[in-house]
């Protein structure tokens, strides 16, 4: 499954960034990327996605993204291509970004939807690694 997830994630590269979007080629945000890959393998999403603002989760400190990932994805005890990575963008803040790990080792990289950049593949550099708040896997098909 991991190779299929990696191929699916890379197929989204070049999709423009659109807040709350989740359509390959048309527009997506980081959550929409993971939602779109979910639909590719499992069909309908497991729950309706509520409307969210760019600053969601910052008030009250509720870990909405980590909680949602834990409800529908499996914890990943080790690092494998195809893992869903959840990031904190600042120390002490709630997790608000996610992407798909596509390469491991010295050339580690991940695919993510990034504001003003769209869906890109980025090196999983030390600063990005330090931001990882959770690692998950899609369930088996």
UniProtKB/TrEMBL annotation:
Residues 1-139 form the NlpC/P60 domain. The keyword Hydrolase applies. It comes from Paracoccus simplex. It comes from the Bacteria. This is NlpC/P60 family protein. Belongs to the peptidase C40 family. InterPro entries: NLP_P60_dom (IPR000064), Papain-like_cys_pep_sf (IPR038765), Phage_pept_NlpC/P60 (IPR011929). The keyword Transmembrane helix does not apply. Keywords: Hydrolase, Protease, Thiol protease. Pfam families: NLPC_P60. NCBIfam families: phage_NlpC_fam.
């Amino acid at each position: 499954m991991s190779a299929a997830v990696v191929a699916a994630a890379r197929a989204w590269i070049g999709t423009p960034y659109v807040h709350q979007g989740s359509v390959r080629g048309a527009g997506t945000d980081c959550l929409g990327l993971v939602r779109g890959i979910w639909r590719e393998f499992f069909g309908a999403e497991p729950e309706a996605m509520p409307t969210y603002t760019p600053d969601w989760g910052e008030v009250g400190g509720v870990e909405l993204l980590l909680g949602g990932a834990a409800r529908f994805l499996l914890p990943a005890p080790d690092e494998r291509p195809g893992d869903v990575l959840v990031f904190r963008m600042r120390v002490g803040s709630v997790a608000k970004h996610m992407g798909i790990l596509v390469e491991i080792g010295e050339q580690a990289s991940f695919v993510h939807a990034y504001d003003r950049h769209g869906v890109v593949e980025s090196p999983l550099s030390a600063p990005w690694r330090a931001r990882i708040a959770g690692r998950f896997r899609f369930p088996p098909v």
